[in-house]
Amino acid sequence: MSGVGVIVGLRSEAALLPRGVMVGCSGGRYEKAAQIAEYMLRTGAEGLISFGIGGGLAPDLRPGALVIGSEVDLGGASLPADPAWFRHLANQFPEARQGVICGASVAATTPAEKAALHADSGGLLIDLESGAVAEACAAAGKPFAVLRAVADGHQTGIPDFALKGLDENGRTRVLPVLVGLARRPWRLPALIGLALDSRAALNRLSAAARLLGPTLGF
Question: For residue 24, what are the contacts with CB-CB under 8 A and spacing of at least 6?
C-alpha cells in the first residue's frame, strides 16, 4: 500500500484509483476535504495528491486535457507543489499542461467567473479539493501534488441545479437534477454537454491512473 493519500471530490473519481490506495472523498465540499487531508496526514500519510476533474480556465484547454499543478492559488497567496513530485508527474505525462491550479471553496459556474479567475491568477483549472490539500500539507510540512483533467471548458456554464446532483459522500443524486431540469428544460443541452465533457475527463484520468500503477508512482 502506498503511504500517499489521495483526495477526490467524486465517487466516480475514486473508482478510477487502484485498490489499496488511501483515498478520501469530499463530495465537493472544501471543509470536508480539509478534514480528510488533516486526518490522513495525522495518521501516517507521507503526502497527498489532489486527483480528479475540474473546470477549465485557460481558453486553449479542451475537455479531457490533463493538467499538472505547479502551485495552488488560494485567492492571492499561493502554495507550490512539491518539486520532486511535480517533476515525476511531468515526466510521466509530457503531454499534460503544467501550471497554476485555483483552489476554491465554491465552483466557478459561468464563463465570466472563469475568465476573471484566469486573468487574476493565470490559473489553468479550478477545483474544490486542491486548496484544502495544499493548505493541510503546508501546515504539516508534507509534500503534495495535483493531477487533474478538464471537464467543463472555459466557455461552459454549469446549471445551478447540476451542483445539487452530488451528495456529501460524492455520490450522484438524480432527483434534484431532474427537478431542476423540469423547471428549466431549455438547459437540457447544457446538461448533456457537461455530462459528455465530464466523461472525457474521467476517461483521461482513468488512463493516467493505469499508467501510474498500484502505488500511483510515489
Answer: 5, 6, 7, 8, 33, 36, 37, 39, 40
